[in-house]
């Protein structure tokens, strides 16, 4: 592909107003349109009708502009100039084969577009936050008492934290505060607990529940609240949990210290079968070998790309509490591991046909340190190493098996 020598352009300025106000998003290929809130339906339509899969949609900062950009580009050039082609059921007769197109940020143009959209959204969010910080026209009632507040939003937020032990964060960490408070007020009006989100028969029962259970807080795992916190807009491709785990408090406390002897703390690698973390992969392999009888040679006997696929496959199966050898499913990971140790299914690799598939090139977990430490065996020379990699294909001649096991099911 040709190198990109100049910044990409977002959709033309003349259409931006229409883009901002329109609640609809068009299909990249046809005239079908869907409401922005029905994003999943549009993605499903493009997979089924046009065989297009967009990777990591949740990381796209402005979905409508992203779609409009690629609709314009696909009208200018063939889709194969941009997308990887995944051929399914390639050993079957020609009429039973399908070509799917994968659009992802491996393509430099797509990566740059995503970053530009994220930066634009960040600028807008920071401008909105700045306006709210100095806004003196704020007016709202407390959600827990009859007191009325005017002036700056911080007065109300500090009151609820101090008087009612309801702390949704520092005012400067919140954006679109009025909308946020309206969402919370609507839940209370519907007699719904803000934390566990159970619905109660009357207001007094709800108040007693939230007080006794200490549920006078919001559920941090509820993704609906993410858009109200500035931290979720700061770094491309990172959630608030990942950003928060990067603890910078020591930097703030020791700004004047000499950092010449500073060393970076190693990132922890997580066991394939449990929650155990170690600061080196050697310790991790030792843990798996001693506690779980997992043979390190099971991985190192494979080339790098096979190791990547196997690790992602094992992580996916363990996540689903499913034995990767006999496919028996369990209620908990503990039950699964106990079964695998008793039957010794943990000690040998599953059948290669189950994991040596292109869908397992994609990480099961983001920032999986174990994947970063994999390497080819020095003594292993195979035909795969002499080929140009990656080759994206999916060779499953049984169409029924393809439909059951394909990653496209999860995307749908």
Automatic annotation (TrEMBL):
Keyword annotations of the record: Metal-binding, Zinc, Zinc-finger
Cite the Pfam families for this sequence.
zf-C2H2_2 (PF12756)
**Would the keyword Nucleotidyltransferase turn up in this protein's UniProt record?**
no
Looking up SUPFAM superfamilies in the UniProt record yields: beta-beta-alpha zinc fingers
> PROSITE patterns, alphabetically?
ZINC_FINGER_C2H2_1 (PS00028), ZINC_FINGER_C2H2_2 (PS50157)
Keyword Zinc on this protein?
yes
> Which terms in the Gene Ontology molecular function aspect does this entry carry?
zinc ion binding
InterPro entries in the cross-refs: ZN622/Rei1/Reh1_Znf-C2H2 (IPR041661), ZNF277 (IPR040048), Znf_C2H2_sf (IPR036236), Znf_C2H2_type (IPR013087)
Q: Locate the C2H2-type domain: which residues?
A: 191-220
Q: Which family is it part of?
A: Belongs to the ZNF277 family.
Q: What protein am I looking at? A: Zinc finger protein 277
């Amino acid at each position: 592909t040709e190198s990109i020598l100049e910044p990409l352009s977002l959709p033309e300025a003349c259409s931006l107003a229409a883009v901002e106000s329109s609640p609809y998003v068009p299909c990249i290929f046809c005239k079908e349109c869907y409401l922005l809130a029905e994003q999943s339906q549009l993605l499903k339509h493009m997979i089924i009708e046009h065989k297009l899969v967009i990777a990591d949609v949740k990381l796209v900062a402005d979905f409508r502009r992203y779609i409009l950009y690629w609709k314009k580009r696909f009208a200018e050039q063939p889709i194969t100039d941009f997308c990887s082609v995944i051929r399914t059921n390639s050993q079957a007769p020609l009429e039973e084969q399908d070509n799917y197109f994968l659009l992802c940020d491996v393509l430099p143009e797509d990566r740059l577009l995503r970053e530009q959209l994220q930066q634009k959204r960040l600028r807008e969010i920071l401008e909105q936050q700045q306006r709210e910080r100095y806004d003196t026209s704020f007016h709202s009632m407390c959600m827990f008492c009859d007191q009325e507040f005017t002036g700056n939003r911080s007065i109300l937020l500090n009151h609820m934290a101090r008087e009612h032990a309801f702390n949704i964060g520092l005012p400067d960490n919140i954006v679109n505060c009025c909308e946020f408070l309206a969402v919370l007020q609507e839940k209370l009006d519907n007699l719904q607990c803000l934390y566990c989100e159970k619905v109660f028969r009357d207001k007094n029962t709800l108040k007693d529940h939230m007080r006794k259970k200490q549920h006078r807080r919001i559920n941090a795992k509820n993704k609906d609240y993410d858009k109200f916190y500035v931290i979720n807009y700061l770094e491309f491709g990172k959630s608030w949990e990942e950003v928060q785990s990067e603890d910078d408090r020591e930097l703030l406390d020791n700004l004047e210290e000499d950092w010449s002897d500073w060393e970076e703390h190693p990132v922890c690698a997580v066991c394939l079968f449990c929650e155990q973390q170690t600061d080196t992969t050697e310790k991790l392999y030792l843990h798996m070998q001693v506690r779980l009888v997992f043979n390190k040679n099971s991985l190192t006997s494979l080339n790098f790309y096979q190791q990547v696929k196997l690790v992602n496959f094992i992580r996916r199966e363990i996540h689903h509490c499913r034995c990767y050898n006999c496919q028996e499913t369990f209620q908990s990971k503990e039950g699964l591991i106990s079964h695998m140790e008793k039957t010794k299914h943990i000690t040998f690799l599953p059948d290669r046909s189950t994991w040596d598939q292109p869908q397992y090139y994609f990480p099961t977990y983001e920032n999986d340190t174990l994947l970063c430490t994999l390497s080819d065996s020095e003594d292993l020379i195979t035909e795969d190493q002499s080929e140009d990699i990656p080759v994206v294909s999916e060779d499953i001649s049984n169409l029924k098996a393809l439909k059951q096991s394909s990653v496209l099911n999860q995307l749908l």
